[in-house]
Amino acid sequence: QVQLVESGGGSVQSGGSLKLSCVASGFNLKDYAIGWFRQAPGTGAGDRARVSCISRSDALSSYYSDSVKGRFTISTDSAKNTTYLQMNNLKPEDTAIYYCLAASKLGPQDDHWGQGTQVTVSS
Fold first, then answer.
1. Closest CA to 95 of 113, 74, 117
2. Residue 58, pLDDT score
3. Whole-angstrom Cα distance, residue 66 to residue 59?
4. Beta-strand (E) ranges in 26-66?
5. Do residues 102 and 32 touch, judged by C-beta distance below 8 A?
């Protein structure tokens, strides 16, 4: 079965840390670009904002949105077919549902999304 399964969300206080995991099954993450998105409370799927992405697991550079730069780190473990998002110094405005995406070079019809994991940061 082709799927992405996320874990690691939770509730933390401002300044805390969380590490999100996204495990791929049924396909090889190395063949996809990887991204993390978040959907703020009260918004729809079309409003998901890109947080971080990497073109492939062995890419030397990655992208971070200005709001998370210096606090979040994207990484991958090819042996575990898993991508991670380490989130440090969390702020209340980071509260959202976080989704991982495996983006196919063949187009969005072959993309895979995780089910989402809730992150709540209290002040």
1. 117
2. 65
3. 20
4. 33-39, 49-54, 62-64
5. yes
